[in-house]
Structure formats: structure tokens, C-alpha cells
Design goal:
The complex is a heterodimer of chains A (about 260) and B (about 260). Chain A is built from 10 helices and no strands. With about 260 residues, chain A is mostly helical. Chain A has one domain: MetI-like fold. By secondary structure, chain B is an alpha/beta fold. Chain B has a 6-stranded mixed sheet, with helices on both faces. In chain B, strands 2-1-4-5 form a 4-stranded antiparallel sheet, with helices on one face. In chain B, helix 4 crosses helix 5. Chain B starts with a helix and ends with a helix. Classes of the chains: A mainly alpha (about 260), B alpha/beta (about 260). At the A-B interface, helix 7 and helix 8 of A face strand 6 of B.
Chain lengths: ~260, ~260
């Protein structure tokens, strides 16, 4: 028998508590201890998921939300990454731009919602804009930090070994900054969903947040809870994506080696 | 100290003559000075190093030996005076000199062979493996530097320097952080490779036994000036218990210690 019991139990352990809580929840709902308009039973939520899947509404809303999240991350992440690089590498750019970046960062981006609605209406652009603002800073700050903390000893070695500017960047500065950049990405993903949840509950015609707001109007708590669970699931998926990147890109780092 | 200088004045470099090749560098420093703020680290230093020789620079901490090495490499520039490579003024870092530092300074995100290949481009794989073979680490080519021991990392760093076929190898206490046994192995390896290859080697060290074991010539720096310049005219491979070697070592050590701090 070559079953690795310790590994197996290690994997299962994390799920014991959630499943136990779900069972209590289900039992409480079945016996009427929980009023289903306050908190629906797990069975009802699964039923809601099945109904919405069949009607195609669930898929449509998930796609709409993911698209906004994806565009926002792409645009905000690129700007943050690029500015982080430029300011990290060039002192002049840093002096010129950093004050502006810090001022923008200190405005809570969700406070811009009224203005965003005036500017963009309730279309896609406003939400993408908010997500862009939300994800921008963590990626900027961590890219900047990663570049700034490049090991001077390694840089000196690179110069002695005849590396040109591009090689110094691609072989020494960037790989050294990568762990930090991925931390920034992780933070950004958290802010990405947070921003989207708020943006979609305020003004929109599709998306998970809109689905939840609609459901609230009709007291469909099962759909509301379903929407929350989907956010949790999408957040977990995004985090797994970064973890996958870390394991692939940071194999050299003893902290990430499998 | 006069005994040394007269004794060595007439000696030819018997041990290195066979290996002196056209590719090693004649190094000349003329009236070189370096200040950091008000502190004069090197003062009007004159030094000629013949091609293919192995020179050790010793001295107390802060005597300017590492600064001297940095000026020779081109990592720093002298405030006054000039460094010549083969009679030509040397200002910038160039492909002729390679430096080994006290730390191996391997890139943690590249495996061993890619580290050795650094700066060579895609075509350098064969050469890199050959250099690794030279230092006895070809079996670790695919490993990450972080899983190697300190001595192995320095051997990789040595391979990385050798792969460029340097005409001048500058060693900035590369064995300083190794344990005693690993240090002896590393010294033997450096000596063997130097004998095979014939580059000009300059070793900065605070270990006087290491200096007399390896070098043709030991230079003692003090207060930014050359306090002592002796040739070590002992046959290779040298034995650690050779009485001449021990005597020389003791003499230099006494000289270092009598210098007022």
C-alpha cells in the first residue's frame, strides 16, 4: 500500500470545518430554526445556481463581471507596472511623477463613483475605470519597491561581467523584482473584486453584483448568497492563478519550491 | 626586510616562465591616488605587475587593498594617476579583467550552468559546461545556486570568471568566507587553473599563509603605500610545512603586526 496518508489527511483537513458547518446550516434550515428569507439553506442555494445556469443568466453575469475585472486589471496593472519600472529605474522620472502618483493613491477610488457615473454613465467604461484605479497602486508600489531593492552587489558583478543595460535589467533587476511584483498582483486581485462588487451594485445592467441587487429587490436571498459565494470563488481562483505563477516563475526561490 | 628585497631582486620567475603567454596582461600603476572625502586610501602608488604572475596583496583592514583592486578592475577610477594595461591607459571596465568577490554573487534565479554562461549569450553553453568541468561541478549544472555549499558557489563563480578567458583575474578575498578545509581545496584549484591558463592573477587577502602559498610576489600595503614587496621564489606545488615558506610567512606577519594601527 503506497498511499501517502499524511499528505492525504493534510489535504482533507482544511475542508473538515467548512463541511461540518454546512451540515449544521442545512440541518438548521431543514428544521426551520433558520428562516429561509434571512438565510436560505445550502440546498436552496444549489437549486438557485442550477436554475440560473439553465436560464443562462449565471454564465452571462459571470462573463460580464470577469470581462470588467480582466480589462481593469490589464489596464491598471500595465500602467502600474510601467510606472513602477520607469520610476524605479530613473531618478528623474521618480522626482517628476512620484508626488502625483502618491496624491492619486490617497484619493479613495470608490469615492469617485458619483463622478464616474456622471462621466461614463452606467456603461462598461465607468466600472473598468474604477477597477483600473483600484488595481493600479499595489502593482505600482511593489514593482517600484522590487526594482529599487535590486542587489547592488549583483549589479556590480553584472557590470564586471560585461552585461549591457538591457541585460542588467533582464537578467538581474527584473528577476530580482519579480517576487515583489507578484505580491503586488495578489493585492491588486483582491482590490479588483472589491471594486467590482461596489461598482456593480451601484449602477449596472449586468454582472454578479447586479444579479445580487436585483435579487434583493425580490427578496431572493438564495440568489444574493449565491452571488456572494461566486465572488468568493472567483477571488480564490484568481489567487490560485497567482500562486501558479509564483510556483512557475520563482522555482529558484526556496520559499516557493515545491 | 632588506634581506627579502635583495634576495629576490635577481630571481627570475622560474615557476611561471613556462606559462607566461601573450594573452596575459602587463599591469602598470603610475602615481595612483584615491581619496574618499578627506580620507586618503591610496597615495602615489607605483606598481608594475609582469604578465602571467600571481601577485598577492595583503594588509590590515582598511589599508586600501580592496580599493586598489577596484581601481585595477576599472570599477572605480583613481583621483590622480593612471592605470595601464599593456601600456594602454585603462579607464573603463573591459573584457580583459574579471573579478571574483568575497561572496560568490551568483544570480539565484539562474541555474548553475546559466550563471556560468552569463554574458556569453546562447552559444556559450559548451564553454560554460567545460568551465564547470574544470572546477569539478559539471554534475551540478542544472541545480539552483541556493542548494550549493559556500565552497561550491565559489567554484561556480570561478568557472564563471574562467569562461571569459580573462587575461587578468582579480580575486577579492574569494576564500575569506570559506571554512579552513574548503579554503585549502579552493586555493589548490585556483593555483592549478592559473598554472594551466597563465593569466595574470591578483589576489587580495588578509590570510598571509594563503598569500605565500599561492603568490609569486607578496605586496604589503599600509596606509595607502607599499610597505613591503617580496618575491616568493619557492617551487610549486608548495608544501605548507616548507620551512622557507613558514619563515617568510612569519616575517611578513611580524611586519604587519609591527605597523602601528
Amino acid at each position: 500500500m503506497s498511499i501517502n496518508w499524511s499528505k492525504l489527511t493534510g489535504r482533507i483537513t482544511g475542508w473538515v470545518l467548512p463541511i461540518f458547518l454546512m451540515m449544521i446550516w442545512e440541518i438548521a434550515s431543514e428544521n426551520g430554526w433558520l428562516f429561509s428569507k434571512i438565510l436560505p439553506s445550502p440546498r436552496e442555494i444549489v437549486q438557485a445556481a442550477i436554475d440560473l445556469s439553465i436560464s443562462g443568466e449565471l454564465a452571462k453575469n459571470i462573463v460580464a463581471s470577469s470581462e470588467r475585472a480582466g480589462w481593469g486589471l490589464l489596464i491598471g496593472g500595465s500602467i502600474g507596472f510601467f510606472l513602477g519600472l520607469v520610476n524605479g529605474l530613473s531618478r528623474t522620472a521618480d522626482r517628476f511623477l512620484d508626488t502625483t502618483v502618491q496624491m492619486i493613491r490617497n484619493v479613495p477610488h470608490l469615492a469617485l463613483i458619483p463622478l464616474v457615473i456622471i462621466w461614463f454613465g452606467i456603461g462598461e467604461e465607468g466600472k473598468v475605470f474604477l477597477v483600473t484605479l483600484g488595481v493600479f497602486f499595489p502593482i505600482y508600489a511593489n514593482t517600484y519597491h522590487g526594482i529599487k531593492t535590486a542587489d547592488p552587489q549583483l549589479l556590480e558583478m553584472g557590470r564586471v561581467y560585461g552585461l549591457n543595460h538591457w541585460q542588467l535589467f533582464s537578467q538581474i533587476i527584473f528577476p530580482g523584482a519579480l517576487p515583489s511584483i507578484l505580491v503586488g498582483l495578489r493585492y491588486s486581485l483582491g482590490l479588483m473584486w472589491l471594486t467590482l462588487i461596489v461598482a456593480e451594485t451601484i449602477a449596472t445592467t449586468s454582472g454578479i453584483g447586479q444579479m445580487a441587487m436585483n435579487a434583493r429587490e425580490f427578496m431572493q436571498t438564495d440568489v444574493v448568497v449565491l452571488a456572494i459565494l461566486i465572488y468568493a470563488l472567483l477571488g480564490k481562483l484568481a489567487d490560485m492563478g497567482v500562486h501558479f505563477l509564483e510556483v512557475r516563475l520563482l522555482q529558484w526561490h526556496s520559499g516557493f519550491r515545491q | 626586510m632588506k634581506a627579502f628585497t635583495t634576495h629576490f631582486k635577481n630571481s627570475s620567475m622560474t615557476t611561471t616562465a613556462d606559462f607566461t603567454n601573450t594573452s596575459s596582461i602587463t599591469l602598470k600603476l603610475e602615481q595612483v591616488s584615491k581619496q574618499f572625502g578627506n580620507l586618503t586610501v591610496l597615495e602615489n602608488l607605483n606598481l608594475v605587475i609582469e604578465p602571467g604572475t600571481f601577485v598577492a596583496i595583503v594588509g590590515k583592514s582598511g589599508c586600501g587593498k580592496s580599493t586598489l583592486l577596484r581601481l585595477i578592475s576599472g570599477l572605480d577610477q583613481p583621483d590622480q594617476g593612471t592605470v595601464f594595461y599593456d601600456g594602454k591607459i585603462h579607464r573603463k571596465l573591459n573584457g580583459h579583467a574579471r573579478v571574483m568577490f568575497q561572496e560568490a554573487r551568483l544570480l539565484p534565479w539562474l541555474n548553475v550552468v546559466d550563471n556560468v554562461q552569463l554574458g556569453l549569450g546562447k552559444t556559450g553553453k559548451g564553454k560554460a559546461l567545460e568551465a564547470l568541468n574544470h572546477v569539478g561541478l559539471e554534475s551540478r549544472a542544472k541545480d539552483w545556486p541556493s542548494v550549493l555549499s559556500g565552497g561550491q558557489r565559489q567554484r561556480v563563480a570561478l568557472a564563471r570568471a574562467l569562461v571569459h578567458e580573462p587575461r587578468l583575474l582579480l580575486l577579492d578575498e574569494p576564500m575569506g568566507a570559506l571554512d579552513a578545509l574548503t579554503r585549502i581545496e579552493m586555493q589548490q584549484l585556483v593555483e592549478r587553473i592559473w598554472l594551466e591558463t597563465g593569466f595574470t592573477a591578483i589576489l587580495v587577502t588578509h590570510d598571509i599563509s594563503e598569500a605565500v602559498m599561492l603568490a609569486d610576489r607578496v605586496i604589503l600595503l599600509d596606509g595607502g603605500k607599499i610597505d613591503l614587496d617580496v618575491k616568493v621564489d619557492l617551487p610549486r606545488p608548495r608544501q605548507r610545512d616548507n620551512p622557507n615558506l613558514i619563515k617568510l610567512q612569519e616575517d611578513i606577519l611580524r611586519r604587519v603586526l609591527t605597523i602601528p594601527a
